[in-house]
Structure formats: structure tokens, C-alpha cells
Amino acid sequence: MNEFLVLVVEDDKPIRNLITTTLKMNDYRFITAVKGNEAIMLSASHKPDIIILDLGLPDIDGVEVIEHIRTWSDVPIIIVSARSEDRDKITALDKGADDYLTKPFSVDELLARLRVIQRRLMKSENISVTEFVNGRLRIDYVSGCVHLDDEELHLTPIEYRLLCLLAKNVGKVLTHKYIIQSLWGTPADNSEASLRVFMATLRKKLSDSSQALIQTHIGIGYRMMKL
Amino acid sequence: MSDKKKKKNAYISVLKDFGISLIILAAATIAGYLFKLGGLTDSNIIMLYIIAVLVISILTSKIYYCLGSSIVGVLVFNYLFTYPEFSFSAHDAGYPVTFLTMFITALIAGTLANKLKRNTLIAEQNAREKEEAALLAQNEQLRANMLRTISHDLRTPLTSISGNASTLISGGTALDETARQQIYTDIFSESMWLIEMVENLLYATRIEDGRMQLNISVEILDDIVQEAVRHTERTHPKRNIIVDMYDEIIPVMADANLIVQVIVNLMDNAVKYSDEDSDVTVSVHLENEYAVISVSDHGTGISDEEKEKVFDMFYTGGSRSSDSRRSLGLGLALCRSIITSHSGSVYVSDNIPNGTIVSFTLPIGEVDLNE
């Protein structure tokens, strides 16, 4: 039995069935909610490890649910939305959601997202404040050095800050807006284009052309994967 | 702001019309004076003024100029050319009649000319409206065709999915394992097809009045290509996809989601029209101010006369594809309208020794970095 408890918040019955069947077959424990308020209550009373949250709920907006839950809990939240709701998706991520699934999604995709979060939860227990290690990548926060295997990488200050930002939020999708605000404070006209270029140069230095380490989410943002 | 501008424009047009009237009347007067010097009679000079009023009616926008210049013409004629000269009095008893006739003739000629001009304008406008209506009807026709094709194409997989599912519900246990497995596979692949289809439709609805609503910004080509490749690898896990990227970072001006969709469509075609064990290649190179993205396969290729037609909406390669339902024909037409609205171009060429290369161009973007 998987020790993770998943709260599934989805008002559409076939989709809810699909998600719960998948969870059941993969030995996750789960509880379900149909409405937003119910979800808030359940997450307070049952303390789930992961929440899968549909954005379009009958009573309150999914974004509101995130805002509520984030006032007391950092529980990872995966949002589920239709493609036409790109903007809502970004708002939800900015409000603290960790990841998203776009309808129609495959069962494998859902499981992959769950595994990403599980991996992060398990490893975050032995997190160190002075050093970050992820696969071949090692960041020494004290000296400001970055190593890929044994080779030291020469990053520009902005690339370094970008890498640290992603590392501190490993497993989480960061929106363009969030990254730009963290790097420059106030966004300028060329911020998005600059960010894309810095990300491309950083990725090159990390030899990550296949995007195994840093994923690009087109129109949304970036995420560092926990390897 | 626009009100002020309108007022200003109206003022300019009044000034212009007034100037035209003055110049033409002055020209008629000078010509009349020359006529008089040449010893020609009054009636010739009257004719000159009538012509002047006619020309004024044609060149100016309002009927007032015709009326005004008729009156001024009569007065000037009276003042300069009738005895006693340089006075508004006329000694000959016939002159008042002459003046009246001159005025009425000028006025009628002017009014007719003005009417003629207005009719021409109306005719022009009608023609324009007709043209617009025709274009609208054509778009409407296209949309109707699309809807008809689509609803037909949606019905088939939906019938298969619901039918298969109901078989499983009512008598699933009576079927043997292989038969059931076949049904599962069918349901899955039919719904996958529906998903792709709906995806394309979503993008197609962004075309309004034949133009795509774009959200263009500086994007990194690598990101776009990787995203498309990932998507294709998911939908066709058995196919070997080779990605041949340029070594530099290439910023392009693009609506990333739409271009991903274009590459996905092209790769989908490449996979569909080539053997299961052959490679599909995506490559990028630079040509002047453009990035060229090519998708090539080792299939049967496309004949020269078909190369242009493949971009037409609903063209499905007729004889070639036995399961034409699976190639809606919306794909390449959609790709072309997306690329065209990015000021790029798309073209088909032959892969050596066999197969097809579909390439498209995107303008390279410029970034001034925010360090």
C-alpha cells in the first residue's frame, strides 16, 4: 500500500472515476470532494499529502481553494484544467499550485506528475541549506559555485540566480511572471524574451538540450525536475 | 480627438472647393475677356460660364458651389461684359432674360453633373459592398464545409467508441481476452484521434475573417521544437524521431503554441505516410533572416502536381490514403494559414532517395537583453 493520501477534487463524475480508478490500481489511498468548500474542509481534517484539484468547480473557484489552503498548508497541489483556461492555469500556479494537468490528459501523465511530487516530498526531508544536489548538478550556495559532475560551470550572475530559483522550487512549475519578479523585481518589456534567452544559455551550459533537468512549459513557465 | 480632426478635414474640403470654384470662374472670365477682344459675341461668353459651372459641379462636393457659381457667373458677366461695362446695370431690355436663361441653364447643367457624379460614387460603393458580401459568403461557405466534414468525421469514431463500450458493458465477459483487448485498443485509438482532432479545431477557430488571431513574441526555437517532438513521441512511441538542431540559440518571432501545433501536424503526417520502421527527422537551419524548420520522412513521397494541392483545405490525397477518415485534410491547410500569418512560407520538396520534406520559415527575432 502506498502511504500517500491523495485528495481528488473534481465535480465531473467520469473524470473523478478515471482519476480514482487510476489511484486505486496504483495503490494510492484517496478521498474525494465534489465542491470547493468540501475540499477545503477535507484538506484541513484529513491532511492529504497531495491534492488533485479541478479548476472549474460548482461552488467556488479552484483558485480560491488554493488561496485558502495556502494560508495554513504547503501541501502539493496539482491542478486540472481544460486548454482554453490557460490564463486560469497561470493564476493558479502564481497562487501556489505546484503543477498542472491539461484535459484531456492520459493516465500515464497523471501518474508521472504524482511520482514527481512524491520524489520531491521524500527527498526534501534531508534538504541542506548550504548545498543542493540534483543528479549531476551540484550547487554550493556558500561559495556560489555550480558543478556538473566534477566540472565547474561558469555562470553569469543572472544565470546563477535563475538556477538557484529553480533549484529552491524543484519539482514546481514556476510561471514566467514569478521568475521575472524574482529576478528583476519590476518587469520590463523585454523581460520575457530575456528570460527565454538566459534560460537557453543556462540550459546549454548544463548540457540539458533534451530538457531532462529543466522543462519548458510553453506559454506557462519552467520547472526543474528532481532527478 | 477624432471629432476635432473631422472638423478640420471638413474645413479643408470647404476651402478647397471654394478655391476650385474661384479659379475656374476666374479662368472663364479671362477667356471671356479674350473672346471679347477677339470680337466674339456675348453668347460665346455665356457658354464659357455655363461650362465653368459644369466643371465646378463635377469637381466640388456640394451642390451649393454649383448654385453659387451660377449666380456669380451671371453677376460677373453683367458687370464686365454687358454695356455699360463695370456696372451692374444693363441697358438692353433683353439682358434680364439673358441673365435668367444663363442662370437656369448653368444651374440645370450643374445639377445634372453633380447627380452623375453621385451616381458613380454610389455604383462604386455598391460594387465594393457586393465584393465584401461575396468574400463573406465564401468564408461562410468554408466554415459550413468545415463543419459538415467535421461533424461527419466526429460521428465515426464516436459511434465506434460508444458501440464498443456498450458491448463491453452488456456482454464483456462472453468475449475472449483477445477480442476484449482489441475493443480496448480501438476505443483508445479512436479517442486519441478525437483528441488530436479537437486540438486542431481549437486552433482553426482562431481564424477569423481568414486571419489568425496571433499572440506573437520572441520565443526560443529549440523550446518549440522540443515540445512538438515530445508530443509526437507520446502519441507515436514506436517511431524513431531524429532531432537535428542548430548549435546556436535561435530566437524567433512566433506564437509558440501555434507553431508547436504546426510541427506536430507535420510530424504526424510524416509518421502516417511512411513505414513503421523508418525514421522521421526534424531539422533546423538558418537562411538569411529566417529560420527554416524541416520535417522529413522516408515514405512514398508526393508527386509534383499534388505538391500544391496538399495545402488546400480538406484535400486528403484522394487515391493514396485508404483510410482518408484519419487524414482530415485540415492539417496542412491550417499549418499554411498559421505560417502565412507569421510572415513565413511553407513548401514541400522531395527527400532523397525517397520520401517527403515539408519545410517552413519563421522570421528570426531580436532580443535586447535585460541584464
TrEMBL record, chain A:
Residues 5-118 form the Response regulatory domain. Residues 129-226 form the OmpR/PhoB-type domain. GO terms for biological process: positive regulation of DNA-templated transcription. It comes from Ruminococcus flavefaciens. Keywords: Cytoplasm, DNA-binding, Phosphoprotein, Transcription, Transcription regulation, Two-component regulatory system. The keyword Chaperone does not apply. This is Stage 0 sporulation protein A homolog. The modification 4-aspartylphosphate is found at residue 54. Pfam families: Response_reg, Trans_reg_C. Its main location: cytoplasm. It is found in: Cytoplasm.
Automatic annotation (TrEMBL), chain B:
One of its GO terms (molecular function) is ATP binding. It is found in: Membrane. GO terms for cellular component: plasma membrane. Coiled coil: none annotated. InterPro entries: HATPase_C_sf (IPR036890), HATPase_dom (IPR003594), His_kinase_dom (IPR005467), HisK_dim/P_dom (IPR003661), HisK_dim/P_sf (IPR036097), Histidine_kinase_KdpD (IPR052023), KdpD_sf (IPR038318), KdpD_TM (IPR025201). SUPFAM superfamilies: ATPase domain of HSP90 chaperone/DNA topoisomerase II/histidine kinase, Homodimeric domain of signal transducing histidine kinase. Pfam families: DUF4118 (PF13493), HATPase_c (PF02518), HisKA (PF00512). Keywords: ATP-binding, Kinase, Membrane, Nucleotide-binding, Phosphoprotein, Transferase, Transmembrane, Transmembrane helix, Two-component regulatory system. Its EC number is 2.7.13.3. This is histidine kinase. It comes from Ruminococcus flavefaciens. The lineage of its organism: Bacteria, Bacillati, Bacillota, Clostridia, Eubacteriales.
